[in-house]
Structure formats: structure tokens, C-alpha cells
Amino acid sequence: MRHALLAGLSLLALGAILPEVHGDLLPGRRPGLPPAVQPGRRILPVKVKLEVKVNENAKLPVLQVPINLALGQRPAAGGGAALPAEDEDTDRRAAIGLPTIVAGLALTLAFASGGLWMVRRGSRRSLALLLAVSLFAACTAAVWADIPGPNRRPRPVPAKPGLPSLQLPAGIELTDKLILEPVPNGDHLTLIVPKSMVKEKGEKIGNPRSNPGK
Amino acid sequence: MSSSATLDYAPGRGDTKPTPWGFVCAALGMALAAAFLAGWVPLRFSIITVFLFAGPHNWLEFRYFLTRLPARWGRLRNFFLLAFAGILGLTAGFAVLWWFAEHGAVSEGIWEYSFAGLNTLLLLWIATLVQVRSQQNPRREWGWIWPVAFGLIAVAWLVPPQWGLVLVYVHPLMAFWLIDRELRRSRPQWRPAFHLCLACLPLFLFALWWRLADAPPLPGDDALTQRITHHAGAEVVPFSTHLLVSTHTFLEMLHYGVWILAIPLIGLRAAPWRLHTVPLARRSPAWHWGVVSFLAIGFAVVLILWGCFLADYTTTRTAYFVAAMAHVYAEVPFLLRAL
User: Fold this and answer.
1) Cβ distance A162 to A176 under 8 Å?
2) Could you identify which of A19, A51, B8, B140 might form a hypothetical disulfide with B134, taking C-beta atoms 3.0 to 4.6 angstroms apart as the criterion?
3) Could you report the predicted ipTM of this complex, rounded to two decimals?
4) d(C-alpha A7, C-alpha A14), whole Å
5) How close A192 gets to chain B, by Cα (Å)?
6) CB distance B58 to B324 below 8 Å
7) How much is the pTM?
8) What's the CA angle centered on A171, arms A165 and A177, to 5 degrees?
9) What are phi and psi of A210, to 5 degrees?
């Protein structure tokens, strides 16, 4: 009877651990997406070039940011070429590697040592507690497995005053509206501006006295 | 005809029993003032409290540990050897890791793995100490420590930055446990009043969180502000930096209050400079002078720390919180001995 009870409890504990291990191989991410930045991780600054293009069809300025640069990764050697797919795979493997293995091992040891401790105590209350904890772990692991990130209450964002126009070289004036477009890996940022934002030579932006004849 | 008399050395028994209401009023008044100042001017309050109390509280803590350290270890030898090896080893490991990270010698990934590894060693060290302590008199049934320790190791590997933050916020609370044990030993009639004060702690925290949950982030992007906000958990948990720094500073102030006011009044049973309550100092004249020397060196370190704070507060504060990990670790074995 005692052995059967031990075997049953061990199977239950194993059942509780398996969903934890397999429930979400990439916590907070789906396969195919670039690696997420872990909380608290510092993104290192990267020195890059900015290329400005004028597009007659554009209605708003577009800033194209390569994903690798946004995540603080340096451009691939050779410039401009996308990082090889192996790097992403390596990064992903590293993300699910050692911490998950050690955590799984530690949880296994926790359940094993906890079960042994409770069985050694021999009281029915302890066994009932073990059963309840195992069931709780199994159910919560199944429920929480695919919920990304902490569930935070949305807060109203206070309205910010509009930013002043930004004057760039070559007579380009940027307003406070900009489309941020993530693009595949690269080694430079690209700013695409509508032709209407490029001022003619001699025309001073934001200074009406520059052309007193009008 | 003969007569006999028994000398009663038990602390507090010969005293007229003072009422605990003065203690309650002082504790609650200090907590109220700390909560108000921490919520109102968190950065300035943090800077001033660390400057004033960091060194003295460490010195008094060291003095308290001397009072609780037996003159001859006997059967406790293994426990104390393990304790001191862990304190020194973990502090050195943390300092080396921090130094490498500060100088950019380790990548972010290596830092997280190393930090999780260090915390694994910390948890295994604590679990082993608990196991050893449970086999000494008075014996305890503390077999649950291993599943708990392994569970916490899993957490430490899954979310290393958040786990580090737990240590930052839990450490100030350990002093309350120690003072409870001291009250049980010397003034048991005060314990209900002390527990009443402890019950008010969640109310103070709730008031802070209620007022500051939606507070804007603290202004300033200088090195000192960044150090203080990062220490309190900025970028690790999604809360306002104002709330985080206020909560941490409030708990730190209570921690300082316990070590600078409450423990000397209740736990030391004598003025800190009077060494007749220190067992090691009574062992022999050589040990007496050794204890005196250690305390004098500690006092000099406090003075030097103040000087360094005045010279370069940011660097000194950073270095202090690395070296101060030793007193965080040291509280574990002495708390276990008090249980």
C-alpha cells in the first residue's frame, strides 16, 4: 500500500513538472519572432549610419530600424548583410538553455525532496498537503503556460504636448509624427521623408523674416 | 545554619517590568516619519539615511554578533566554520562578479548565469546551515528546507534580476525576526506590543503604494539617481521608480532603526563599549584585547566611511553596498542560532 502510494505520488509530481517544462519552451515568445529582450537586460548602444531618402509618394516620414540594431546587436561583418540565421538560432537556444535546464532540475529535486520529507513524516495531513500542492502545480502550470509577461493593469497615458519641429541638414524639417518601421537585419538606419518636408535652397524654415519680399 | 542564594543572571528578570507603550510609541512614530519622508523626498531621504546610518548600523550589528558568538564553539564548531566560510566566500564571489560587470569584463548573459549560480550557492549554504542547526539542541524538524531551497533555486535561475531584488527587499525585514527573538529572550511581555507594531507595517506599505502607484518616475538622470533607482528595482519590475525608491528607503530606515536603537536597548544588555557581555572577550586577556581591537578597527572604518561619503558619495555608496553583502549573509547563521 505504502509503495503504491509512493509510486502514485511520484507520478503525480512528474505530471506536475512536465507541463512546467514543456508548457512554454520560449517564455513570452513564439517561434519565428526575434529574441525578446529579457527584463532588466541592458541594451548596449551601437554606433550606426543614418541614410536619408526622399520619397515623393510618402505622406509621413518613415524611420526604418533594423531589428538587430534595435536589440543592441552589432551589424554583421561586411556591412549591410543580415545576420546569419544561425546567430538567431544560437541566441534562441541560449535563451532556453542553461537556466531552463537548471530550473527544471531544481524543481524536480524540490518535488522529490518534498515528497520524501512528507512521506517520512508519515502523517495523512502531510500527504494530503502534497496531493494538494501537486494538483495546484499541475493546474497552474497548464493555465499560465502561455500567458506572456506580467498581467498589468493598463494605465492612462498622460497627453504630452506636441514636440517642436526638428530641422535636419539638407533642409529637411521633421514634425513630431513619425512612422517607425522595423526591417530585417542591417547596418544602418534609413529615414524616408516626403518631398514636401525638403525645403528649397535659401528658404529658411520657421523664420518668416528670411524672405522679406513675401 | 546555612543560607544560600542564587544569582539570577537571566536578563530582565531582576528588572522592574517596564511597560512596552514607550517602545510602541517610539516604533510607530519612527515608522510614520520614515514613511512620510520616504514618500515625500525619497532620493534625499535615501542619500541622508545611508550617509548617517549605514556605517553605525554595521558596527552595532557586528557588536551584537560578538555578543551571540560563544567563547568556545564545541559542538557548534562545524556550524560556525560553515557559517564563516559562507559569509566570506559569498561576499568575495559577489564582489568579484560585481567588479567584472562594472568593468565590462563579462557579457550580460555571463553575468546572469554567474549571478544565478552565486544565488544557488547562497541557497544551498542556507539550507545546509538549517540542516546542521536542526540537528543541534534544541532540535528542530526542518526537513522542509530542501524542497523550499530547490524551489527557490529554480526561481533564481528563471528570473535572476527579480530574485536579486527579492534579497534587497527581504533583508531589511530579517532584523524584525531577530528583535522578536531578543524580546522573547529578555522581555517577553513586550512581544504582543511588538507584534502589534509589525501588524502596522503592511498598513504603512499599503499607504505608500496607494499614494505612489501612479507617481511619475523620479526626475534626474545623474549617476547617483540611477544607482539608487536601479538598486530599488528600476527596469526590473514595472513600477514607478518613485514607489520603488520610497518603499526601499522606508524599509531600510526601519532596518537601521532596529539595529541602532532597538537591538542596543534590548539585545546587547549593556552599552556597546562595555564588553562584559561578550563571551569571547571573557575567554582570556588576549581575546579581550583582540575583541577590543576589532571593535576599534570597526569604529575607525565607520569614520573612514563617512569621510569617503563626503569625498565621493556615489562611488562610496556603490562600494559600500557591495561590501555590505557580508552583513546580509552574516544575519542568516545568527538568526538560526537564535531560533
Assistant:
1) yes
2) B140
3) 0.76
4) 10
5) 32
6) yes
7) 0.65
8) 30
9) -65, -20
